[in-house]
Amino acid sequence: MPPDLTPTARALRTLDLLWERPGLGAGELAGRLGVTERAVRRYVGMLREAGVSVESVPGPGGGYRLGRGARLPPVRFTQEEALGLVMAVLGGRPELVATALGKVVRALPAEVGRQAALLGAYAAAVPDPYVTRPDPVLTAELAGAVAARRRVVLGYRDDAEVEVDPWALVVRQGRWYLLCHSHRAAAVRTYRVDRVRAVRSTNRSFTPPPDLDPVAALEEHLGLGWEFATRVVFDAPLADVAPWLRPPMGRLEALDDASCVLVGSTRNPAMYAGEWLARVPFGFRVEGGEELRAEVAALAERFAKAAEVPVGATDVRPGRDD
To answer: What gap in Å lies between CA 19 and CA 53, rounded to an integer?
Structure first.
């Protein structure tokens, strides 16, 4: 290192070295810094006085490592990381996240911090009405239960209690889901984390399914288990239809080379018909689900009436002179 560095600069370099290689001994730190071991101990003391938790590792091969203190040690971001962080929270910034982001921006190097501040100040986002913000404390408790493989009792929606084995937390399109095994239903279930009102741990453990893919499992179960069953046959190949469907609509299977079937369930047949099925540009017929069939018929009647020409009115079309 340059011999004219100040003690503060060497203390910060000590911090960098411990960040990169936890457990470095005083001798190795002294060699890298070009100082004595006594000086290394002084730099460690300076870091501790500044609120950075530096722990001593006992033993013959012991050294120093960063611990969890009252303050975070300085964190270094690349330009791409810093700007990406700002962009990631622009879509919906609750007060807590906005405050934390401001602290991060102020701690960045001058040029990167200036760019990040400008991005945050002059970029605007239309709030996503479908984004939900679950309680951070309850979400952390669920994450702890997932990690410990500990069964929990959820207070869900209107104080209904559900005993579950929490397999995984999955964030999908701005919503947090808990993928789990519900003991009340004796089946796999997905619960919206923003609807969880309480989490109570039990002393019972569980073993999740082997080779569990949480994202794939969530996609598979989002369209199952709702109140109204659905079955829709499309007059098009599966490969053509699949891009137009949303996973919560159900499971899509091929019938033959020219048709496929969608089997699922919904709690809102009107939305299923008017927002989901109506956008699919292929012919289809509802073979299962009286509620869905009724909503499709009502939608078709409404659109047919909208296209009627009133008696005595002239059918004016663009490009015609008569």
So the answer is: 12
Helix axes 79-90, 95-107, angle to 10 degrees: 160
- Joined tokens for residue 171: 């964030």
Pick the closest to residue 60 from 25, 87, 85 (CA basis): 25
Quick: pLDDT tens for 15-37: 888 877 888 888 899 998 889 99
Residues 59-81: tens digit of each pLDDT: 666 788 888 654 555 666 667 77
User: Is 191 in contact with 178 (CB distance < 8 Å)?
Assistant: yes
Closest CA to 41 of 75, 73, 72, 10: 10
Token pair of 208, please? 């999740």
Token pair of 3, please? 């011999």
Say how far apart CA 104 and CA 85 lie, in whole Å. Answer: 9
Under 8 Å between Cβ of 281 and 244: yes
Single pTM value for the model? 0.57
